Amino acid sequence: MQILLSLMSGVALLIWGAHVTRHGMLEVLGPRLRLVLAAGTASPARGFLAGLGVTALIQSSSATALMTSTFVAGGLVSLPAALPIVLGADVGTSLMARLLSVDISWLSPLLLVIGIALRLSGKDSLRGQAGDVMVGLGLITLALQLIRLYAAPLLQAQIVHAIFISLGNDALLALVIGALLALLAYSSLAAVLLTATLAMGGVIGPATALPLVLGANLGSGLIACLANSGAAPAARRVSLANLMFRVVGILAFLPLLDAMPWLLDRLGSSAATMAIDFHMAFNLALAATLIWFVKPVASLCNRWLPDAHDHAAPGGARYLSQGDLRHPCVALGNATREVMRIGDVIEEMLGGMKLSVAGNDRAMNARCRALDDRIDDLYSSVKMYLTGVDTDSLDDDDTARWDEIMLVNINLEYAGDIVERILADLDQRKLSRNYRFSDEGSAELLALCDMLVANLRTRLSLFVAGDRTAPAVLHECAAGFQARAERFTARHIARVAQRRTASVETSGLHLDILRELSQMNSLLCAAPAGMPGAQRSALAEDPPFLPAEHPGALHAPERLLNP
């Protein structure tokens, strides 16, 4: 029992060491690794090398696949361009398994001492994060030493010997156990290293080790799928393709398992290193073969995991068809429809804000605040979609339309943030304290909300129509709102001067809301500089209640991509 517990402690230490190393490396090089992966999508060869290099550093092909899936989900890269990165990541795991399988246990004390010293001296600094990497590597080498030390005596136990013999006679059972080991360890690298260490110690033979390695590769694919299970379909396609690669490789290699020991022996592999060599050969063969089939695999994944329909994902983009990017005019129309949906969500949030002004329903307030996440998603989708349009092929009118769509998209996203901020203030400063505005103050705020909804609808109608009179209409809307906001501010100050309790208690919040609503109105009434007749409204030039450093409404096209 003591030997078994000691072996289990070694396995636990191996898993934890891999986690610490991966976490430390991501802290040190996280942004740079993302840049490397993004640059790797230029060609399949560069993608393969980028995936290999990044995985060799962070020691997790699953983590590399997850990072790649974020690029695909964000529309930064196509699925076929991302899949070579995944294949390279699998080879990167094999490379690290080869390096860590070498007996360098003498390095463990040195790595631990230096790593802990760096960690304690630097903590959250770069030096401390580098210390985490060294501590993780030290724990891995120490864990492998413990596993080697306690694995050999297990052979003396008849029940353990019988279990390993049965595994050697049942490749499918060994494959399932290998997959479970990878899932439990949340790392195929840890599962492969454990298998290799047991093989080096003579605890298991090639007949058991090789299917365990195949199972670890299957487990790695399952890890990425589980981690991405709640993501958008575009992100899940990367994990699905990764799993498909593994399954195809396993199906191809399973019939060859009996011949593999002989073949690896002929290639110079020993019984001690056969598991590691097989792991490397498996992933190299997979990459060399399947890198030529990334487009068919991507098409299959797109068919099996189509973009979510409206009823499945009411908050996601509906109209941004990637195929329509070949026709810029159609793409601009798609983006326009999606921006209109952002306006609908903002109007829904404004309705919730009116209820929070008039009443004290905190649950409803929280639901309305959560709608801002939907706006953020739609805004990002539209922005990335528009950047995919070939602007060089646009004429002057379409270029002006592109600018206007981007402007309205940015301003509506900012307007959504303002409403979310007002809702949060109402929750913290009114609803949680059970305060109420004065009857007059509440009526005035509700009137401004109604006026804001009307201006929002006017802005969106002009946006869809592309009316050349839009700047004049928007200027009129802005001036009307400004005059009413100033009048309501003066009335509120008069009520405070009269020491009316409700007005005094909510005065700070009341004035903040007036300022935020005016700021939001300036965004809604902004017209792009390229639109004929466009001019800055008085509100945009000098919006009431706005701090001098506030950027105000966006007008210049060169600022569109940097809100």
UniProtKB/TrEMBL annotation:
InterPro entries: Na/Pi_transpt, NaPi_cotrn-rel/YqeW-like, PhoU-like_sf, PhoU_dom. It is found in: Cell membrane. Residues 535-563 are annotated as: Disordered. It is a multi-pass membrane protein. Signal peptide: none annotated. Keywords: Cell membrane, Membrane, Plasmid, Transmembrane, Transmembrane helix. Its main location: membrane. One of its GO terms (cellular component) is plasma membrane. SUPFAM superfamilies: PhoU-like. The chain crosses the membrane at residues 33-58, 70-89, 95-118, 130-151, 171-196, 208-231, 243-264, 276-294. Pfam families: Na_Pi_cotrans, PhoU. It comes from the Bacteria. GO terms for biological process: sodium-dependent phosphate transport. GO terms for molecular function: sodium:phosphate symporter activity. Residues 340-423 form the PhoU domain. PANTHER family: PHOU DOMAIN-CONTAINING PROTEIN, SOLUTE CARRIER FAMILY 34 SODIUM PHOSPHATE , MEMBER 2-RELATED. This is PhoU domain-containing protein.
